[in-house]
Design goal:
By secondary structure, the protein is α+β, with helices and mostly antiparallel strands.
């Protein structure tokens, strides 16, 4: 309201008045048409009362939404989508109460409308209050399309019924009937064609007024008059002179058939669901058209309050209309004044303008409903052909045909069931595996000596890694089992010893998928393959342990908290196997690698040769200058070797013990990156860069390190340049090996 008052310039007032006149006219046409639809057939003699109730709702909707919506130009109205289902409910009531007194029938129908509107209001407000508005967006798009086309069909039948005042049938093809409804159909087609080509806000009201003028011109030329037009059934009404306001307290509540009111839960549920869908579509359309991000939960609460107030006055469900709301926006109005003025005009019509409504021809009211129906058909039967897949498009037709030949609620039910089946089929085609890697491409963060690194490089293909994703159910889990089986049986790839299943990207596991995982474990057991499971959520870990670890049997599979821990365990098993064959042979130390370079006889690493028990080496004689500059450092467990963010003054050789690398985030959270074993180099890149350390490395147990400072390295370069060159070549080889492994991992992740 503050923005409304702060923008009361003369130009804004004039533009707001012009917008209000247009939106008022459209609101009146829409309310009268929908009231005629809602109170048609056996209820047509209550059309005057129904128009008053709906017009009261229009006044409330316009005023409340104009003051509270996220869109400052929002104009609300009773909506055709929920009113179509409400008209089905009122028709059922009329059919069940054919012999009831008129007062009882009217009271029961209006109370049923009030009950449905208030229930919808409460549902809207609760959804908005608990911030569940986004749930509405998960309804399948073709199901929404089927709903809308079904609504269009009901509007089409209702529009023809308003013009002919007769149910659909062969009688509509009689000359007398054709004269009544064909002009309205022509009007609807003209409105559709012109609105598809032009978007001026005055187009629709101008065509409606011109059509009404043309009707009177033709009728008066035929020696008719306003009185005879009403008597011959060409006009809506007759409405009483004065106002249409009728408090619901005037109804005969003691005559209400409460059993019928509370008995139609199916239609009540459909009204709430369809109202939520239609509201979502309108808000989404306004967001796109106005380039404004709406707070859906705020809109739901606002609409809930408006419907509660309107429902207490006898109105059906309503909310913001996209077409009416865009009138002011396209004219450049950016205040709530236009909405408030529209509400004032609607309220004036409710209290004093019944005579104006008596002049509206039936063909205008019916033609407007048919225009709305054709708009739904155009959007969901024509343009949807170019947007949707063929299955989704056929689902729209299935829902429509079910609505036509069986019923509206049955069509809704069929659409939801079929959409669920199609979703399951489509989702089952999505591969549950995000990445397929091997132990060669994806290694743990444990840094090992050269021999073990080379060994794992050669034997890494025996570790088969599957990074899973999404929600796993029987279909996707079954495909996973078949993928593993094919990998084990592959004649061209090394037979895996370990199947690593990483659940980090898995959002959930259906109970039906447990059967497929049981088959996977049986397959692994029969093939003597170990399944390593990592990154299970707390909930999935409980289920996994209950289902597959009942006997504490770890021979078939292991569970680890992280993928890195699982890979480190697999690598340890490979190392233990081959070192046992080699009877304890040790990998080359850093000194041995430098010695090899100095001897200029460093062939490619033969890890199998290194494991032979008879392998012997000479004492180091060429690297004495290197040993002379090294400083021995003794550290207790928990003492940092390198600190994150600080400059590293040289390199360390981990002679004995074990260290751990970790990072610390700005909020203090610590992430462990990996483990460093003895004989590895720490901080080798510090000799070449001046960048601060990216990680903190801490002694995990009492450790002995040999330290080579940058100053001592320069001394070595000056006094023993050959030794310095050998050191540089070994360090460059280590850094290059790390870079190559990182590149291979990136390539594997991009496949």
């Amino acid at each position: 309201m503050t923005k409304t008052l702060s923008s009361l310039s003369l130009a804004n007032i004039l533009s707001s008045v012009s917008v209000a006149l247009v939106t008022w006219m459209l609101e009146i046409f829409l309310v009268v048409s929908l009231a005629a639809l809602l109170f048609s057939g056996n209820l047509s003699h209550f059309a005057v009362e129904g128009t008053g109730f709906l017009l009261f709702g229009g006044f409330v909707f316009v005023l409340v939404i104009a003051l509270t919506s996220s869109f400052v130009t929002a104009i609300a109205a009773p909506q055709e989508v929920p009113i179509v289902i409400t008209s089905i409910m009122t028709a059922n009531i009329a059919a069940q109460m054919q012999t009831a007194a008129a007062e009882s029938l009217l009271a029961t129908v209006v109370v049923a409308i009030i009950f449905s509107t208030i229930l919808t209001a409460i549902a809207f407000w609760l959804i908005g209050h608990f911030k569940l508005g986004q749930l509405v967006r998960f309804i399948p798009y073709p199901v929404i399309g089927g709903f809308m086309v079904g609504t269009g069909w009901a509007l089409l039948i209702g529009g023809i019924g308003i013009m002919t005042n007769a149910p659909p049938g062969m009688a509509l093809l009689s000359p007398a009937a054709l004269v009544q409804w064909v002009p309205g159909m022509v009007l609807a087609i003209c409105l559709l064609v012109l609105t598809q080509r032009y978007s001026h806000f005055l187009l629709v009201p101008s065509l409606l007024l011109a059509s009404a003028g043309l009707f009177y011109l033709v009728y008066f030329i035929g020696t008719g008059s306003l009185t005879t037009a009403g008597a011959d059934g060409w006009l809506l009404g007759p409405f009483p002179t004065g106002g249409l306001w009728q408090p619901v307290t005037n109804l005969a509540f003691n005559e209400v058939n409460w059993a019928i009111v509370f008995g139609d839960f199916a239609n009540l549920g459909a009204i709430i669901l369809m109202s939520a869908i239609a509201l979502l579509l309108n808000i989404s359309g306004l967001e796109v058209s106005t380039q404004t991000d709406a707070d859906l939960n705020r809109e739901l609460k606002s609409v809930g309050i408006a419907n509660l107030l309107a429902g207490l006055g006898g109105s059906a469900v309503g909310f913001a209309s996209m077409s009416l709301s865009l009138v002011g926006f396209r004219l450049g109005v950016r205040s709530r004044l236009a909405g408030v003025l529209t509400a004032v005009l609607v309220g004036f019509t409710l209290l004093f303008g019944a005579g104006i409504l008596s002049t509206i021809p039936r063909l205008i009211a019916g033609g407007l409903l048919i225009f709305l129906a054709l708009s739904f058909f155009w959007d969901w039967l024509y343009t949807a052909w170019f947007r949707l897949s063929r299955l989704d498009y056929l689902l729209i037709w299935l829902i429509l045909l079910t609505i036509i030949f069986v019923g509206f609620l049955e069509g809704v039910g069929i659409g939801i069931v079929v959409a669920a089946i199609l979703f399951v089929l489509d989702y089952s085609r999505i591969d549950a595996v995000r990445h397929v890697l091997t132990g060669t491409e994806r290694r743990s963060h444990v840094v090992r000596p050269l021999l073990y690194e080379e060994l794992l490089q050669h034997r890494g293909k025996h570790i088969y890694i599957l990074v899973l994703r999404g929600f796993l159910f029987f279909g996707s889990a079954h495909r996973l089992v078949e993928r593993v089986r094919a990998r084990i049986d592959s004649p061209t790839l090394p037979r895996p010893r370990f199947i690593v299943l990483d659940f980090r990207l898995v959002t959930g596991v259906d109970s039906s998928a447990l059967f497929a995982f049981s088959r996977l474990l049986q397959l692994a057991h029969s093939q003597r393959v170990t399944v390593v499971v990592t990154h299970l959520s707390d909930k999935m870990r409980v289920v996994w342990q209950r289902e597959f670890l009942q006997d504490d049997d770890n021979s078939t599979h292991r569970i680890f908290t992280t993928l890195d821990q699982g890979l480190a365990w697999c690598e340890e098993q490979i190392i233990d196997t081959f070192t046992s064959v080699g009877l304890g042979a040790k990998p080359k130390s850093f000194f041995q690698q430098v010695e090899d370079v100095l001897r200029q006889d460093a062939p490619p690493v033969d890890w199998l040769e290194q494991l032979r028990p008879d392998t012997k080496r000479e004492e180091f004689t060429l690297i004495a200058p290197l040993k002379q500059v090294l400083q021995r450092v003794q550290l207790d467990a928990g003492v940092p070797i390198v600190r994150q963010g600080e400059q590293v003054a040289g390199l360390y050789l981990l002679e004995s013990g074990r260290a751990v690398a970790q990072t610390e985030a700005a909020d203090g959270a610590v992430s462990v990156l990996g483990t460093l074993e003895k004989n590895v180099v720490i901080g080798g890149d510090a000799l070449y860069t001046q960048q601060p350390a990216a990680t903190t490395i801490i002694a995990e147990q009492p450790s002995t390190l040999l330290y080579l400072s940058q100053a001592d390295m320069k001394l070595l370069e000056a006094e023993a340049p050959a030794v310095a060159v050998a050191v540089h070549r070994v360090l460059a080889g280590m850094l290059g090996d790390r870079l190559a492994r990182a590149s291979h991992l990136v390539e594997a992740l991009q496949r």
